[in-house]
Amino acid sequence: MDEAILFFNSLYKERFIEMKVVVLAVITGFIVGFIFAVFRLPIPAPPALAGIMGIVGIYLGFKAYEWLLPIMQGWWK
């Protein structure tokens, strides 16, 4: 029983830290976007949905590689 509690406690801490990083990234992005707007500079992000989807695609491709790498290494042994 104690092992299960320790497992879920560590899992909760990991998720909390991940969410903290996401929140900090959003806040930082908001501040940077606001500063760019104050100085009337072009936005430092893709201006269209296609650009944002390109970034999502890059992220998903990276994650797919991380997921497939152990499987592919098993094939080559």
TrEMBL record:
Keyword Membrane: yes
Name of the protein this chain belongs to: XapX domain-containing protein
UniProt cross-references to InterPro entries, sorted A to Z: XapX_domain
Source organism superkingdom: Bacteria
NCBIfam families for this protein: XapX
UniProt KW keywords: Membrane, Transmembrane, Transmembrane helix
Transmembrane spans: 21-39, 45-62
